[in-house]
């Protein structure tokens, strides 16, 4: 597997991958999440310009081998994982884990944070297996509070959500 910074020419393919990766939300009664628009090209391009967009490829794989991507941003001294998605054809191969680990390494000696659905098996339970722990309300930083407020405005609080954190490896 190859993990590297994304290229501008790959941005449309990341949107396609995101749509496919979201389809399983239909199976857990979350159609609006499954049908949500992927990040817009200008959003992806801004992350690309900031050096905060990674892609994973598996040589010789389907769809040219594009297996996943991760977009992150700095939030209150942490590397906040804004989006991590794996193409369904590459599920269960630890590609998400590899992207998260690389974002942690690229982010320096900072913790990783994310927001996620509490009860979706490939969300909070998955991240817990990768060493993330749920944050209490008292532990939320101002930046995480702002992210959660924005998610609530988008209607994502229809389902239980939480913030999680993994300490820096070093």
From TrEMBL:
It comes from the Bacteria. The keyword Acyltransferase applies. InterPro entries: Acyl_CoA_acyltransferase (IPR016181), GNAT_dom (IPR000182). The keyword RNA-binding does not apply. Coiled coil: none annotated. This is GNAT family N-acetyltransferase. It holds the Pfam family Acetyltransf_7. Signal peptide: none annotated. Keywords: Acyltransferase, Transferase. Residues 1-151 form the N-acetyltransferase domain.
């Amino acid at each position: 597997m190859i993990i590297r910074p994304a290229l501008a020419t790959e941005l449309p393919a990341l949107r396609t991958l995101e749509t496919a990766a979201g389809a399983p939300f239909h199976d857990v009664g979350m159609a609006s999440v499954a049908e949500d628009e992927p990040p817009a090209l200008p959003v992806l391009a801004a992350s690309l310009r900031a050096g905060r967009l990674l892609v994973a490829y598996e040589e010789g794989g389907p769809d040219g081998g594009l297996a996943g991507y991760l977009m992150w941003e700095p939030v209150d001294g942490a590397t906040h994982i804004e989006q991590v998605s794996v193409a369904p054809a590459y599920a269960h191969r630890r590609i998400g884990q590899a992207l998260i680990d690389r974002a942690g390494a690229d982010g320096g000696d900072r913790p990783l944070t994310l927001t996620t659905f509490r009860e979706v098996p490939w969300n909070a339970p998955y991240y817990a297996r990768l060493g993330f722990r749920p944050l209490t309300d008292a532990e939320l930083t101002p930046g995480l509070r702002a992210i959660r407020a924005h998610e609530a405005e988008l209607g994502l609080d229809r389902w239980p959500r939480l913030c999680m954190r993994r300490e820096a490896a070093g």
